[in-house]
């Protein structure tokens, strides 16, 4: 039976939200007291010091623990799909490569952190969001707009900081086990320990995922483990230790959804890749300190080691004879990062400085040292080896000033000194002002970011006889210049938040790739200039009469402003929009959570996007025509029920010794079996489900 294509309208969702807002309006005078900290969460990512979101000039979205519990994401990237200004692409079923673009920028312009420890691949390539276990985390912070002045390269368009679900001092120890099974012969097992003692807290998790997929050679397998420890030797000191390992294998079918999509291979080209796969092993170890020897001085050093071993292997098979491009091939690489960071914060009040209007001042001075190594061996018709190292030394500065508890001004700058390539200088300014009587906040930010070329951009070399590809060691950093302005309205003790933001970005020196090569003899060159602009509208009603409703609508316009006379390759063509960026999309969710029950309906609609058709590659052609990838509407459903809660069973139920909470869960993705491609030619899964049971001891 053919799968369906449909278009949802956001009108019913926004109408439901409007009705709830109207009902809430009757209770504005009775807004709950003491909930503002809960409903105005702290963000550490925006300034690297804790601040309420309502005082930050940048656009920041906090995904709290309740959003995980209400939406039951299969992996954490599943939750980020709902983020404001975020557009996610995934090349197939679970475990397939998933990337995120912030406000239409490049998908490698985002720095990804694991509670402050850098998680972005050391090779400088795209971060894959398909492999983040949800059980590691209590939430995330998404910072939109250039953040290179604080976070350096990779943060040209923003930062995503994944927050660990660490125990707190004095927290009762708990043990959690979960078992899930579902579509495509999927099985998951989770073991999680969390708790604390008088002077610390801890987290330890171990999980396994096995999924056979929909097609031949379409499986996904992952084993992930994490351990973290906080230790407070005194009220003025904190030590954090972190270790992480994540091993995953993703089989590489070449079905490209051919049996289940309108984008079929041409007649006669029905060969399938039956044995290719990619295997990745990520390991990280990190340590950080927070030292406050005086009221006004804080030193927060951090050191980490990260290594990624990645293999792509296409063993010999029948396809080698009929399709020479798909002949036996193997690529192995090891990426390593050593990083130390040394920020010092100086904190003063207006009284300290004898300035009555000043509420507080936080000055940050920092030095960062980062070494990245990349070793790669490629074996095909010819074999090549790369072995490269590069170093970055950085100085950064930031000043935060708060006046009258209402006006916050923030500015910063950074200098990145590279041993290879031109240095980068970046900066940022932001402001936020709160009108207390009306609960209205206006904000704005402007800045620039930089993205250092990846190792492959610089040094890649492959000679397969019929095709020779070369990197360009003379590439410059890609750059983004941005400004934004926004307004937020808080109602009902901040249970209601309405937001609107306008932004413009200019991306310069974008690196273009061409199979045919450029006049400089390489396949990579700084060619393109791109301009983007857009609008973000969002509304949220949090925990009102057992309902939580969230919705956001995004408009994005992109255009290639300069391709240097057609030299931008097929990705960057003057006057054309950027690939895989929709002009508009919206997401929304309605949650009902009385007592033991939690149910959430998640809606997402994405407009059509330009893309490229890579099927000519099967015939040996390197010309890939532009196509329009049709829009789609996706509906997900999450249901959970506590059979035992706080040790008490449902009426008529049976308590279990030691079990404090027993929950049954069901997550259904693509509930209406929508037929769509995130990426042209890679059919997204149809209706798929995951059911399970979770024990808390």
UniProtKB/TrEMBL annotation:
Keywords assigned by UniProt, alphabetized: Cell outer membrane, Ion transport, Membrane, Receptor, Signal, TonB box, Transmembrane, Transmembrane beta strand, Transport
Membrane-topology descriptor: Multi-pass membrane protein
Cited PANTHER family: COLICIN I RECEPTOR-RELATED, TONB-DEPENDENT OUTER MEMBRANE RECEPTOR
Name of the protein in question: TonB-dependent receptor
Keyword Ion transport: yes
TonB-dependent receptor-like beta-barrel domain residues: 248-671
Family: Belongs to the TonB-dependent receptor family.
InterPro entries: Beta-barrel_TonB, Beta-barrel_TonB_sf, Plug_dom, Plug_dom_sf, TonB-dep_rcpt-like
Gene Ontology cellular component annotations, sorted alphabetically: cell outer membrane
Keyword Secreted: no
Recorded superkingdom: Bacteria
TonB-dependent receptor plug domain sequence ranges: 54-159
Organism listed in the record: Tectimicrobiota bacterium
Subcellular location per the Swiss-Prot or TrEMBL entry: Cell outer membrane
Signal peptide residue numbers: 1-29
Pfam families: Plug, TonB_dep_Rec_b-barrel
GO biological process, any: monoatomic ion transport
